[in-house]
Specification:
Length: 155
């Protein structure tokens, strides 16, 4: 196999993986049209929350907020993460070791060469970020989130 054949085959396989990526189930409690989402969100918020993008590391002021309170979904105001579960992961994104009960849903993300776990709001489907297996105890999980997807409400 020559280099060209390998590259073409790899590109085709990656393309097929992204096309066949499972979506979150439809029928969220909070549903909006694409135009409604665009009207209520900034360009970056829309890219992250509705198109599963990522904000630049270190760009969110919420990364350094450690006051008592609750983080809510920017898309529907559902309480999703408690400041009690927040920690400094050193990654440049707000990180938590668990979400609030029944606040999030996950799905496989096959956009890169390995499968990651994507995390979304269970009520409106907004994309928050990813969950990794390198967090602190007691869960060992790191919910690595985009700050633009969240609104912090101090206690």
């Amino acid at each position: 196999m020559d280099r060209r054949t390998f590259l073409i085959g790899t590109s085709a396989a990656l393309g097929a993986m992204s096309v066949s990526m499972p979506a979150l189930a439809a029928g969220f409690e909070v549903e909006r049209t694409d135009d409604e989402w665009r009207a209520m969100l900034t360009k970056l918020e829309y890219k992250v929350m509705r198109r599963e993008g990522t904000e630049r590391a270190g760009s969110s002021p919420l990364d350094q907020v450690y006051d008592p309170g609750v983080y809510h979904c920017r898309g529907c105001d559902l309480a999703v993460y408690s400041s009690k579960h927040k920690y400094d992961s050193g990654t440049g994104w707000p990180s938590f070791w668990q979400s609030l009960p029944d606040a999030v849903r996950t799905k496989p993300d096959r956009k890169l060469l390995r499968v990651r776990t994507e995390v979304h709001c269970r009520r409106c489907g907004s994309h928050f970020g990813h969950i990794f297996d390198d967090g602190p105890q007691p869960t060992g999980k790191r919910h690595c989130l985009n700050g633009v997807s969240l609104v912090f409400r101090a206690a």
